[in-house]
Amino acid sequence: MSVKFPREEKLKSKKHIQRLFDEGSAISDFPLKLIYHQIDKEGNANLKMAVTVPKKKFKSAVHRNRIKRLMRETYRLHKAEIFNKIEGSYALLFLYLGRDMPEYATVEKHMIKILELFLKRVQNEKIAE
Asked: Would you say the pTM of this structure is higher than 0.70?
């Protein structure tokens, strides 16, 4: 598994993003929150991911972009841990809820935990079906 984040894995569809907010399930590990929803497979990507940082908490675009870069990088490096273990296709949206500028180690720690929680929850949902 390469550690790339290709275009096919980026969540850009307004329809999917709106559905995430309307019907999605959430997992929280402060300062990160993951909202996910199962989608129909499009192309060869099982996971489509987007990140967001609220403008209300971070007025400066430079700071918002830095946080988004940190979240995308930690996801890119750790997605292999769940990528091969997951069945089905999911849209993922990561929100940064904190008020302070995070360190990479903080984002990485919480991203790993949230991805593990996501994998457990998805596997439990599959078993329940």
From this structure: yes
